[in-house]
Every structure is written in structure tokens, then in C-alpha cells.
Amino acid sequence: MVEEKNSDIGRKTAEASKPKKKADPRKKLYQPERVLILASSPHLSSTESVYKIMWSVVGALVPAVAASIYFFGLFAFWMILSCILAAVITEAIINFVKKDGLTIKDGSAVITGLLLALTLPPSFSIGGGVLGAVFGIAVGKQIFGGLGYNIFNPALLGRAFLQAAFPVAMTTWTYPQTTKYATIDAVSTATPLGMFKFEHILTDYGDLLLGNVSGSLGETSVIAIFLGALYLIGKRYADWRIPVSFIGTVFLVGGLFWLVDPVKYPDPVFHLLSGGLMLGAFFMATDMVTSPITPKGSWIFGIGAGILLLMIRLYGGLPEGVMYSILLMNAVTPLINRYTRPEFFGEIRT
Amino acid sequence: MKVHTFKKGIHPVEFKHYTSSKEIEILPLPDDVYIPLQQHFGACCDPLVKKGDEVKTGQLIGASDAFISSPIHATVTGVVKAVDSFPYPAGGYVQTIHIHRTGDDEWDLLPAYRDWKSLSIKKLNSQIRDAGIVGMGGAAFPTHVKLAPPEEKPIDTFILNGCECEPFLTADHRVMVEMAEKVLTGMKILMKVLGVGKGYIGIEMNKPDAIDIMSAKVVQSDLDIQVMPLEVKYPQGAEKMLIYAILKRKVPAGGLPMDVGVVVNNVGTAVSVAEAVTEGKPLIQRVVTVTGDGIKEPKNLLMRIGTPFQHAIEYCNGLVDETAKIFMGGPMMGIAQYDLSVPVVKATSGIVASTRVGKVESQPCIRCGNCVRYCSMYLLPTRLARLSELGNYSEAHELGILNCVECGSCAFECPSSIPLVQWIRVGKLCVGEMLQKQVKN
After folding, report:
1. Fewest 10 Å CB contacts: which of A14, A22, A120, B277?
2. Which structural domains are found in chain B, ordered by start?
3. Is A105 touching B (CB cutoff 8 A)?
4. CB-CB neighbors (< 8 A) of A38 in chain B
5. Which of B241, B366, B386 to mutate to test the interface with A (most CBs of A within 10 A)?
6. Are B359 and B336 in contact (CB under 8 A)?
């Protein structure tokens, strides 16, 4: 048997070197015929992988994508496809230039393109979307060193870039094709948040739940987003603490404002259902790379984002603040990690 | 029945079905044994025999004057072929006595004390020391040292560790099922030496037969001993986790179980203690689980210390061709082997052959926080591994790298397959060196 030989060699070499003076013990290393793999423990691992997590996120966004195509037509489909392609191709080119291996299969670039497309207004130009995706991947992610090293959510950074570059186009909204106002030449309107902020018109909650309102391509349908999010949280690919604390803060603090002045401020349910809160809280704030690694940090992250969001919605110049609230919390994530280190088991703090 | 446990931890697939219902078999004596002179934590023993000497089974062949050390005994009757450095299963080379067996066992035993209850504590403990007993769960800490805590650390509770939380291993399980009487005797002796009245036996719920048998035995005993069923969770058998699960006491970071008045011993150790005291038999054999999908016929084997892995594996009909890895101990903390001539030592709980290569390439950390979520010591493994990689040992020390017990839960759950434990081990070593330098300066 092969193994028999192996061990015999091992012994013989060990004995052979004995008569000599102090031989280098490394010389006794034997050459086995059966090559056994040496590795540090543990020798078992779970079946989780980056690949699985990222593609699950893509899968969890399918309902939101379907809703966006239903409400905003084929345009949504083309926008999503272009953004994904732009993101993936940009990543591939940068991989090539930097001579690292191709990283596009891990699915993270697909997520960036997809999420960015879902946050764009229905009348935005496809070229603009591509530009945002290129910016998001190049400046938002690859400049920092690629997946895992970026500070900001690349999709949101891409969107912030577009918001700065095309402020008018980024705030021009049209009705979904499913409403009676939709015509061939899209009539511009305002989002439910904008309508409340500037005209004090409340939108029907049923429409908000389904997504039959104007807004970014993938943010309008609360139900579709929630379906995907349940799957992600169930699989533990999204930390439930972040959406719970984020949405919870908006609900509670928003509710306080509403109690103080129900005329001036919208009620908390409206806060939850309108705008990009659901998409942001479930799919952007939970981005693993840019959110805290400690459980306590996740709570702080969500609460902070919730408060920032309300401040922007209620006092800022913009009707919506999901993007900036998450980006700002991304920026302080390293700090949060540092100050929320769990106490070691049995630690005596001095 | 209330099930106790600790916080965090992981649930790896158990793989215990290979051997959990197989009775312990006695492995035929090997023709050659290789007995390392250091199988324990502490000072290395000096050889007491030289090439050509004849030795009997149980004869003292290695000893040291140091307190933290443990004597070594011959495990077969035969002739010393060599005293030289040989490969050691925990890595590297160790001074080893090679004995060629010449025939059946001729015993050279210690005095036996059937009526051990009348012996003094001192006498009992010196018997335990003379028998070369060390912790058989894996750490191999000399038992007599554990049994003699300093006076300012009073011990009030004794815990017998029958968790066996590592996947694949069933040695402790079978020992409890088949040698319950000896386990209990050993436990009583240990409790007498420590002078404690309260004892617990912690057993994971995946060993219901062991729980039943031990519970039945305990009822007949005159001491206050309680069997504690524990949740099946890794690392339930880690000393600090076990103490927390049973007593809800937290061993202070950097401290030992005796700091909270507890001594923990493994069931295998208890059996050895019982044999040492009542039969005068030094620690020359132990139960080892030879298992894994790479072993053709997995078994629980009672084998002599110093038996080459090869011999035990052959008795189990050898390896399947796809075998990729063989490790000593369970898959979570086991040490990978490259040479099957290495001997079974006092701390060998299992020989596991696996056909899975494991994840080789790692991806960047995506900060999913899994390692933080599952670390039973509440550390930040990803951060510690990174600091170790960057050589920032002082910050790694501040973040508690030395508290890591290397259980492997973080690396198990890491979706990027980062060798977290490997980096943390490097970091721990370097932090240790750094601290030593600081003391010198």
C-alpha cells in the first residue's frame, strides 16, 4: 500500500540521519507519494460564500425589478440592463488595467448597477444612468481597492454624482404607466413626498403600498421590496437590526413630529411608505461592506440614518433624504466599529 | 430537562454517525511505538533509557524535575531502538523514544489502591502525577498541576467535560457509554483531591445514551453530582464556555477556571485517573476515534500511546484514494498531518481523514460581521486577522487577540474563506514575543 511506503520512508530517513552529528532536522522531511494537504484549522467550513450572498441579493431584488417594469414599462428594463452592463464592464476594464483577476462573477458589480438603476427617475436618460454606474464602480468602489474596501455604497455614490451633475433631470418625475395620467409623452409630476412637502397633498396609502405612484424606478412598490427583503433577512444576508432600527426610528421620531403638529408634518405611516425608505433601509443600508460589523454598531447605524433622513425630509431643501442619510452613516461606520467593540468574554474593563 | 448553553457559537454538521454507535475495539499492539518525551504542556522529559535497553509495559522511561511536566511510560514490552527526534503530530520534531515490541505485555505497574478513599490527598495526587496523567481533551495540561491550585484560589465546583463538541469525534461518547463506572470513579477521585463536594457532568444533547447511563450511575453515588444536558453547539466543550453554560460564571479574560473556583477535566482523563489509582496503571493507552469519509471503516479504538497513525488507519482498512487531509483531533481545531508515521499521543482524541480539500483561495473581507456574530469570546476576528496581517501587534493586543481560543468558529462561517484563525495564531505568537520584549526592557 502506498501509505505503508510513506511511513517507512519517514522512519528510515529519521534513523539514517542519526549517526551523523546534529543533522538539520529539516532534512528528514520525507517525500510522500500520497500528498496530504496541510492547512491551518478549521478543516470544515459552512457553505456560505461571497458569491452566494451577492447573487442572493440580486435574487431578492427580482420582485422590485418586476414591479418597476410593471409600473414604468420597458424603459425600466432597458435602464436596469444598461446600468448593470455599464457597472460590470467598468469593473472588468479596471480589473484588466490593475491586472487583478476578474472579479465580476462575484455579483457585486451587478448589484451596484441594479441598485443604481432602481433609484433613478423614470424619465432619466439611459446615458446618464450609464454614467452613474461607471462613476459608482470606478470612484465608489475600485479606487478604494474593490469589493470590501469601499467606504461608501457604490450605487448611492453613483446616484449622488448624478444628483449633483443633473439636478433637474434627477428630480423630474413622471406618472407610472398604470395611472390614468400616463400619456405617450410623459407628464411630469411630483413624488408623494414632494407633493406633501411643497403642496401638502397626501397620496393614497394603497397606491403607496403597491407602488402605483411616481418616484424612482424601483423604490415605489413597498410590497415588492418587502418580499425580497424578507428573503434576505431570512437567509441572514442582511442584518435585520439595520432596517428595524432605521425604519423604527423614522416611524417613532416621525410620529413624534406628527403628534406635535399633524398639519405641518406627515403621519409616520406616510413616512414609511413613501420615497425610497424601504429600498434604502433593506437593500442599501444593509450593504455589508459599508455598514458596521458589530451588532451594537448596526443599531447605531440604523438610528443615525433614520434621524438624518427625517431631518432632511422635514427641514432640508430636498423632499427625500435616504441617499444622503445612508452615505453619511457610511462615512462614520469605521468610527462606529471602533467604539462599539463588544466586551470580551470575561473582560474586566479598567 | 433544562438545556444549558453559552452565547453565540456555531452549528457545524456533526458527522458523528460514522462511529457513535460502534463499540470501542482494542487495537492489536503495534510492532513499533514512538513515544515523544513531551506530550504535555510544560517542561520536556529527559529520557531514562538508552538504545538497546529492554523495557516493560508501564515502565517509566522519561521524567522531569519541573513541577509543570508529566512523566512518560513505555507502552509496550520491548527493546529501545532509538532515542532521537521524530515527527510529532502537533508539528515539528520532538525527542522520541522508539520501542520495538518483542512480545506480549509484561507489566511494570505502580502500586494499586483499591480502597483509594482511605488515601491522603497528597498521596492521590502524587499517584496521578506518577501515572503521567494529562488533560486528554486536547490541551494536555498536566492534571496534577490542575489539582493543586494555589491556596488563594479556593475551588468549590468540579466539572467533568463530556461535551465532545467537535464534529466526527465519538471517543468520549463511547467512553461514557461503555466505561461509566470508571468515569465516575475517576471523577470521585478528582473531587476528593480537590476537596469539592459539588460536581457536574456536562454532556451535549446529541448523546442521549451517555446522558441516561451517567445519570443512572450518578444517582447511585454518594456525592453531589449532577448530569447537565447541554445544547449541541460548538464550542460547547471549550472550558470557559462549559463553565458559563453550567454555572453562568465567566472566567475573567486571561484567567483560568480556578479564578472562578472551578476545575474542568475531560471524561477520558477521569478514566485514566481511575485506572491509575485503582489499578496502578500509568497513562499508556487511550480511546481514539479513527473516522472521516477518508477512512474505509471508521472505528473507536483503544490504543497504546505511541502507536503510529498508519497502524491505526490500516486496522480500519486503510484510506480511500481521494483522501486529501488527515488531522489529529476534530476538524475544527485538529492539526493537519503530512506524515502518517507520527504517533498517537496523550492528547490525540481522534484521527480524521477527510476527502474534502477545503477552500483554498480567499476573497477580500466584505465585513458581513459573521465572525463577530459567532465568536464565543466576543472578539472581532476579521479586525484581529487584519491587524496581524499588517503587523500591528500592539493594537491587536488591545483588541484582545490573546483571548482567542482558536475554536475556528469565525473561519468556519467566513463567506470569503479568509484563514482568520491562521492569522490570529500568527498574531498571538507575535504579540507574545512583543510582550516578552517589553518585560525585558
Report:
1. A22
2. 1-28+103-358 (3.40.50.11540), 370-440 (no CATH)
3. no
4. 336-338
5. B366
6. no
Whether the CB of B362 is below 8 Å from some CB of chain A: the reply is no
Cα distance between residue B333 and residue A197, in whole Å: 60
To the nearest whole angstrom, how far is the Cα of A83 from the nearest Cα of chain B? 23
| A28 has a chain B CB within 8 A of its CB | yes
Looking at this predicted complex, what is its ipTM?
Answer: 0.86
- Number of H helices and number of E strands within chain B? 13, 17
What is d(CA A114, CA A105) in angstroms, rounded to the nearest whole number?
15
Alpha-carbon radius of gyration of chain B: 21
Give the model's pLDDT for residue A182.
57
Query: Which domains are present in chain A?
Result: 1-45 (no CATH), 50-339 (1.10.3430)
Per residue in A61-111, pLDDT tens?
Answer: 999 999 999 998 899 999 999 999 999 999 999 999 988 888 888 889 999
Contact B363 A52 (CB under 8 A): no
> Cis omega (within 30 of 0) on the bond before B111?
no
Please report which residue ranges of A235-321 form alpha helices under DSSP H.
241-260, 268-273, 277-279, 295-315
CA B227, CA B215: separation in Å to the nearest integer?
A: 6
Residues 225 to 254 of B: which have CB under 8 A from any A CB?
240, 244, 250-253
* Arithmetic mean of pLDDT, B297-310: 94
Whether B308 and A52 lie within 8 Å, measured CB to CB = no
C-alpha distance from B378 to closest chain A C-alpha (Å): 5
Q: Which of B234, B265, B262, B267 is nearest to B250 (CA)?
A: B262
